[in-house]
Amino acid sequence: MSICPTGAITMRPDEEGFLYPVVDGEKCISCDLCEKRCPVGAVHEAHAVQTMGAQHKNTQVREHSSSGGIFSALAHDVLAQGGVVFGAAFDDHLHVEHVGAMDASEVAGMRGSKYVQSDATEAIRNAAALCSRGIPVLFSGTPCQIDGLLAKVRGKEREKLLTVDFVCHGVPSPGVFASYLAELERKHGQRVTAYAFRDKRLGWKNFSAVATLEDGSEVTGTQTDEPFLYGFLQNLYLRPACGQCTQLRGNRHPADITLADLWGAQQICPQRDDDTGLSLVMINTPKGQHAIRRVKQQLTTFSVKTDKLLRFNPGIEETAKMHPKREAFFRGYARHGFEADRVMKLLAPPGTVERIAKRIAHLPAGALRRVRAVLSK
Ligand SMILES: Cc1cc2nc3c(=O)[nH]c(=O)nc-3n(C[C@H](O)[C@H](O)[C@H](O)COP(=O)(O)OP(=O)(O)OC[C@H]3O[C@@H](n4cnc5c(N)ncnc54)[C@H](O)[C@@H]3O)c2cc1C
Known about the structure:
Blueprint lengths: L8 E5 L5 E5 L9 H4 L13 E7 L2 H6 L5 H11 L3 E7 L5 E6 L2 H5 L12 H12 L4 E4 L2 H10 L8 E6 L7 H15 L3 E8 L8 E6 L4 E5 L4 H7 L23 E5 L3 H4 L10 E5 L2 H10 L3 E4 L6 H4 L13 H11 L3 H8 L4 H10 L3 H11 L2
Parallel strand pairs: 4-6, 6-7, 7-11
Antiparallel strand pairs: 1-2, 3-12, 3-13, 4-5, 8-9, 9-10, 11-12
The protein binds flavin-adenine dinucleotide.
């Protein structure tokens, strides 16, 4: 959408609630730029990666960041250079979109992971315009958003652009999240005014989701009983393309710096783990290295052995596998929207009867006949 010179492309939600590009044939001049620059299907070269563990020294920054708060350190440095920071933030209706920040209070809204696909189309266009004027820009987003940005910002225009992505589990549907919030509002008879996907009051490792209602009360849940969070972690409503994202992983990330949770910290670096959040920092380019050097004073950094990382954070290399009940979820969603009870039932581990039925169904034909004969006695 952002590369089209005639504005012929708009993004529209499909029946699963994800945005997809739609081309207006009347405005299209058949320049084919959208296809030529499309990052989908592109093969990414592997590159050298320098890896370290890190944590922001400021406890308040860590408290509101999903892992160690490294994004905030980089953002404040770019602001200090007179630059603009782009990242994902909630609007007043809790819709997640990428916006530009020119001061620290705006950056605060970008802190923390939002487990829903952020609409970055306008932000990519605005960031590209600033890059062409030589203004420092930090753009933080999913690996595919960074790939899209880099398809538009090329050559010399990239000089003052710093990109940050993360190890990405995949992104859930914005339509599904909006429907979940609407269900919460109906149930509690009041608006949801804020939502945190990674509240750290129970700790960094045992994070929980917290919805704040209009009267200030909170609806909270953990990774296995908060329906939206649970469905996200079980890949029930990720974007289909996330299941095919094999390129933008490992040592092929397109951004200058890749951030992740330093999962396994209890085993990898127990002396560093205070359960307030630790980041794994993967430096992919000399520009990324320079940026980390500039913010080092704000951070505690330490080396990590890379051999155990994949065991505790397989998403560094592995692509998300869609939940087997994804289709069933979306069939119900089309009729009734998000229904927390139905989601919890879909995600419940198979019961004893179902387990036995499944085992019987997989028996060879001869064994199956014998089981039938025993049962019919
Ligand atoms: C959808 C999603 C999936 C993730 N999956 C994994 C994973 O599988 N394994 C892992 O180790 N880490 C994952 N992370 C990254 C991790 O949780 C931290 O965000 C990352 O380590 C940076 O943490 P921080 O403390 O430095 O900064 P934070 O303040 O936590 O990071 C905020 C940054 O994340 C960006 N961001 C937040 N939500 C979105 C969004 N929806 N779309 C695009 N950008 C967004 C913001 O723009 C901001 O720049 C994921 C993050 C997201 C958003």
